[in-house]
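tokens incoming
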């Protein structure tokens, strides 16, 4: 007989890992709360790339300087920056959205594009929009 363990909704989450998501088409680069904490919750970041090692480096920066990106609120404590020009300039593959685990190296938060990642699409959003619009197809009940 299976040894089921009940799940309690009030249980706290296990420690979350820091990650960075590069959205499809490079529209934005998103950092979760844990990644931002590694950077000491900056107002802006500087983003760099090592084309040989395929590493993105993100470090805390001062707001208002030309090369820096001001962070914008997302949800659940995450923040994002525009990634379109950066990903296009460095020809980073953005055919699908990808989420990477990240780590600190000195002052930089490192995104290693060679490591395993989670790929995702916005199919769920499209299904939801279709459902909310009332366009649910012409499904018929068949026996």
């Amino acid at each position: 007989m299976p040894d089921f363990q009940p799940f309690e909704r009030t249980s706290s989450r296990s420690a979350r890992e820091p990650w960075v998501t590069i959205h499809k088409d490079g529209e934005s680069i998103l950092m979760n709360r844990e990644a931002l904490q590694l950077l000491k919750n900056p107002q802006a970041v500087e983003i760099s790339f090592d084309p040989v090692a395929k590493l993105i480096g993100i470090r805390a920066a001062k707001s208002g300087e030309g090369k820096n990106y001001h962070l914008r609120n997302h949800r659940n404590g995450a923040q994002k920056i525009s990634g379109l020009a950066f990903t296009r300039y460095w020809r980073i593959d953005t055919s699908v959205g990808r989420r990477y685990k990240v780590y600190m190296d000195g002052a930089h938060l490192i995104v290693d594009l060679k490591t395993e990642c989670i790929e995702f699409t916005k199919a769920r959003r499209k299904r939801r929009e279709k459902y909310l619009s009332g366009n649910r197809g012409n499904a018929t009940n068949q026996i």
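note: The chain has three helices and ten strands.
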